């Protein structure tokens, strides 16, 4: 089952064109890997971009998986490849609220 975001993600309408394009690419990458995560009972939600940092929330089986850090590294590699810009993908700490 797909987890629902707990808070509102910053609106793409308020982002710059470049920012909106980055968000779209990030979401595309997550959508591409999502079937593999779901097959193992997990998922990954995009929360926000903070400078060169992409904050995601690992859910389901991914929360306690020993390979979650490798999954995040793989997501990061795909995003960097697509964007052509160095970005860090980091998991949100428990209770994290994305800035609005």
TrEMBL record:
InterPro entries: FSCA_dom_sf, NIF_FeS_clus_asmbl_NifU_C. It comes from the Bacteria. Residues 26-89 form the NIF system FeS cluster assembly NifU C-terminal domain. GO terms for molecular function: iron ion binding; iron-sulfur cluster binding. GO terms for biological process: iron-sulfur cluster assembly. This is Fe-S cluster biogenesis protein NfuA. It comes from Methylovirgula ligni.
